[in-house]
Amino acid sequence: MMKIGIVGGTGYTGSELLRLLVRHPHVEVVAVTSRSVAGTGVADYYTALRGEIDLAFSTLEAARLSDCDLVFFATPNGTAMNEAAVLLEAGVRVIDLAADFRLKDLDVWRHWYGMEHAAPALVEEAVYGLPEVNRAAIAGARLVANPGCYPTAVTLGLLPLLEAGAVEASQLIADVKSGVSGAGRKASTALLMAECGESFKTYSVGGHRHQPEIRETLQRATGVEVGLTFVPHLLPMVRGIEASLYAPLVRGEVDVQALFEARYRDEPFVDVLPAGSAVETRSVRGTNLCRLSVLEPQGGGMMVVQSVIDNLVKGAAGQAVQNMNLMFGWEEATGLALSALAP
Ligand SMILES: NC(=O)C1=CN([C@@H]2O[C@H](COP(=O)(O)OP(=O)(O)OC[C@H]3O[C@@H](n4cnc5c(N)ncnc54)[C@H](OP(=O)(O)O)[C@@H]3O)[C@@H](O)[C@H]2O)C=CC1
Ligand SMILES: CC(=O)N[C@@H](CCC(=O)OP(=O)(O)O)C(=O)O
């Protein structure tokens, strides 16, 4: 059994990692950190895990992370960049669920994250953990930058169109909506039930840090310069992302449905729905799937694709486990055969 550590086990993505890893056949979780509840039993804190794990939260300082084979960071941006080098030197592989190693352009990173990067050399080494784009590189990586939730949904929805040169890459639009768990578990007035429980709003209208992440990923994957308008919204639900993606068609005769089916035929976690189907977040809730629906152009020359994921699974912890499976050479779907949660 490989020994696994989780830094940030009390957050939403950390708890989702625990849900997946306690049933994974090839790993044992040996360390889970928390600053706020160190000393508390993990299964006392999460009663859903009673009988599944016999371990207490420890502080980062007390956790013996160097004894692990792999450590997940499910922590705020700017945390893993201070810890990764020591772990890598000790032979421990690292997957960061935050954004510390996602952007190769450090000036862009500094602008969006508002801090100096503590480990620029590791940014160069890190592999962006989107298996549908970087599978071979992930398999050989010591350090994986797990993608953001919106970037996963948007990139998978736009990639086949750009790879085929079927759309005008400079005029892409991503109209994206997320459940509130996307904002993490920390207390925030804007996320109170009374503030957002019966309302629907846009946010980060001046710009969102996932826009440059998506642009960089699409450009690196296709070699095409991308222009993207990205508008996020907060939905009054807990889990799930729906992305409605718009792109002007440059070649009218292209069979976009066939393009998507061919691109994702061998992908275990991308499901292209039959032509004309509508997607809904409920169909992927609790699963590691991205479901895509290609909508017919309605005469305006605009291609519309819909993409849904569970932000905590394919958008975070599930994708991180998928990456871990690739890094250790295990079957990619190990521990991820999850049914959608009941409504
Ligand atoms: N929520 C989502 O849908 C997604 C989140 N992400 C990213 O994943 C990361 C985790 O997100 P999420 O789980 O939602 O966040 P949460 O706010 O829910 O949890 C953060 C966790 O980190 C711990 N923590 C906070 N500050 C520090 C610190 N300085 N050092 C060590 N541990 C710390 C907290 O525990 P304690 O205070 O007890 O130490 C807690 O366990 C973030 O970077 C987020 O942007 C990525 C994709 C999707
Ligand atoms: C609803 C909501 O607030 N969602 C978060 C996205 C979470 C995420 O994936 O952010 P990272 O890039 O930091 O990992 C947001 O828009 O900030």
From TrEMBL:
Catalyzes the NADPH-dependent reduction of N-acetyl-5-glutamyl phosphate to yield N-acetyl-L-glutamate 5-semialdehyde. Keywords: Amino-acid biosynthesis, Arginine biosynthesis, Cytoplasm, NADP, Oxidoreductase. One of its GO terms (molecular function) is N-acetyl-gamma-glutamyl-phosphate reductase activity. InterPro entries: AGPR, AGPR_AS, AGPR_dimerisation_dom, AGPR_type-1, NAD(P)-bd_dom_sf, Semialdehyde_DH_NAD-bd. This is N-acetyl-gamma-glutamyl-phosphate reductase. Belongs to the NAGSA dehydrogenase family. Type 1 subfamily. Pfam families: Semialdhyde_dh (PF01118), Semialdhyde_dhC_1 (PF22698). GO terms for biological process: L-arginine biosynthetic process. Its main location: cytoplasm. Pathway: Amino-acid biosynthesis; L-arginine biosynthesis; N(2)-acetyl-L-ornithine from L-glutamate: step 3/4. It comes from the Bacteria. Its EC number is 1.2.1.38.
